[in-house]
Design goal:
Blueprint: H1 12-20, H2 23-31, E1 36-40, E2 45-48, H3 50-55, H4 60-63, H5 68-72, H6 74-88, E3 93-100, E4 106-118, E5 121-131, H7 133-154
Antiparallel strand pairs: 1-2, 1-5, 3-4, 4-5
C-alpha cells in the first residue's frame, strides 16, 4: 500500500489558520470583531480575519502575501519597525498607537504583537488590535471639562 509522504495541499488561509489554531477555531477567529492577523518572519501576511482585512479596505484573500511595509506605508512602517524587530526576536509587546484605516479614519488602538514560535524558532507573529478611540475621546473630553471648571473657579 502506497501512503502519501506529503500532506494534501491546502489553501493559504487554511494553512495560516492551522498554524495558530485548530481547524474548528478558524471560523471563530474570522467572526471576531477584533482585527487579528498573522505575519511570517519576512513580514508577509499569512492570515487576516475579516475585521483586520476590512480595516485596510481589503478582503482576507487580498491581504494574503502582502508585505507589512506595503500595507502600512513608509512612515508608519518606519515608526513600527522597532516593535516588529522585537517581536521577530521573540518578544511579545503591547502598546498604544494611532492608526489610519483605508478610509482615512484615524483610530487610537492598543496593539499586541506576539511571536509565533515553532521548535524554538520564531516563524512569524500575530497582531491584535483593540480600538481605544471611544476611551481616548472620553478622556480628552474629561480633561477639557476639568480645565474649563478650573478656569471658572479662578474667576
Amino acid at each position: 500500500m502506497n501512503l502519501p509522504t506529503q500532506p494534501a495541499p491546502r489553501g493559504p488561509i487554511q494553512l495560516a489558520t492551522e498554524m495558530v489554531a485548530p481547524a474548528h477555531l478558524g471560523g471563530a477567529i474570522d467572526d471576531l470583531a477584533a482585527p487579528i492577523a498573522f505575519w511570517d518572519q519576512r513580514m508577509c501576511n499569512r492570515y487576516a480575519n475579516v475585521a483586520y482585512a476590512s480595516w485596510y479596505g481589503m478582503t482576507p484573500l487580498q491581504m494574503y502575501g502582502v508585505h507589512i511595509h506595503e500595507l502600512l506605508g513608509e512612515a508608519s512602517f518606519q515608526r513600527n519597525l522597532p516593535s516588529l524587530r522585537r517581536v521577530l526576536s521573540g518578544l511579545s509587546e503591547t502598546f498604544e498607537t494611532r492608526l489610519q484605516n483605508a478610509l482615512g479614519h484615524v483610530r487610537d488602538v492598543q496593539v499586541t504583537t506576539t511571536p509565533l514560535i515553532i521548535d524554538n524558532t520564531v516563524t512569524g507573529f500575530s497582531v491584535l488590535f483593540v480600538d481605544l478611540s471611544a476611551r481616548v475621546y472620553s478622556e480628552a473630553a474629561l480633561r477639557v471639562q476639568h480645565k474649563e471648571k478650573a478656569v471658572r473657579e479662578e474667576r
